[in-house]
Design brief:
Blueprint (H helix, E strand, L loop, with lengths): L1 E6 L10 H10 L2 E7 L3 H13 L3 E5 L14 H8 L4 E10 L12 H25 L2 E7 L2 H8 L8 E3 L6 H9 L3 E4 L9 H9 L5 E3 L21 H12 L3 H15 L5
Parallel strand pairs: 1-2, 2-3, 3-4, 4-5, 5-6, 6-7, 7-8
Bound molecules: zinc ion.
């Protein structure tokens, strides 16, 4: 049994054939799918999908890339959503400086600082709600690893995070584990040039990582460039077992225990 711990089933990419997508996942042995909201509307849609499909659970939050569109305070609504029996964590939240610093940014210097401050504020709101509700956090970070850890650290005795779509070094992975959090790997581990990510995956302790598709993005080989879907977590798992030199079934069993511990309401 496999689990896709990070999907975006509420995106329009899946609206035409969602039932078939979930059916194919179940046929591929993917018994659970965690669908992740990217703003409050998307989070409500994620919860609705989880209500209609026993295999699907939801994560609710506001993605840092859309931070400027967020209302000033989303804590009350997050808290309310978190009470739903199928909501298993908060997120995805965190920091994304990628498009702020790539030279193609539409933002001036002052706007960039404002965007960063807004991302940080939203991230901290998720952390506060996580403490209050006892749920963990799905963390997105791009091009600001140190800053993300710095904001998480004061909460790390009460909240655990999963650094999703992890592409960091072995040293960065160890820093994540040192604050009690986990890492999660996508189909990137199947990409030809992703030697460094495979090295990190190979070095990660068996009970400190999860697997995800991040679909509809990042389809693993041999589906690269096509729409990704939860069934493809199987290709990721096969590659991960090979990289780690371990048996697929026993790795899947450990992965399930890790996910059930991290998302206690998954059960
Ligand atoms: Zn995502």
């Amino acid at each position: 049994m496999l689990i896709d711990t990070h999907a975006h089933l509420d995106l329009p990419d899946f609206s035409a054939d969602l039932d078939a997508v979930i059916g194919r996942a179940e046929a591929a042995g993917v018994a659970r799918i965690i669908t992740v909201g990217t703003d409050l509307e998307s989070s409500h849609r994620a919860v609705q999908i989880s209500e209609h499909h026993p295999a699907v659970h939801a994560v609710v939050g506001w993605h840092p890339s859309h931070a400027l569109a967020a209302p000033p305070d989303i804590r009350a609504e997050l808290k309310q959503l978190a009470e739903h029996p199928k909501v298993v964590a908060l997120g995805e939240t965190g920091l994304d400086y990628h498009h702020l610093s790539d030279g193609h940014s539409p933002f001036g210097q002052q706007d960039q600082e404002q965007h960063k401050a807004r991302q940080r504020d939203l991230f901290e709101q998720h952390l506060e709600v996580a403490v209050e509700t006892g749920l963990n956090l799905v963390i997105h970070q791009r091009d600001c690893f140190d800053r993300t850890l710095e904001i998480l650290r004061p909460f790390a005795d009460r909240v655990r995070g999963v650094f999703h779509c992890f592409v960091g070094t072995i040293e960065e992975m160890n820093q994540v584990l040192a604050v009690g959090s986990l890492v999660s790997f996508t189909g990137i581990v199947t990409f030809k040039n992703a030697h460094a990510v495979r090295d990190t995956l190979a070095a990660t302790p068996a009970d400190k990582f999860m697997l995800e598709t991040d679909c509809p993005y990042l389809a693993p080989i041999p589906f690269r460039g096509k729409r990704c879907e939860p069934a493809h977590v199987r290709e990721i798992a096969v590659q991960a077992a090979q990289v780690r030199g371990c048996n697929l079934d026993s790795m899947a069993d450990t992965l399930r225990q890790t996910a059930e511990k991290f998302f206690p309401k998954l059960g």
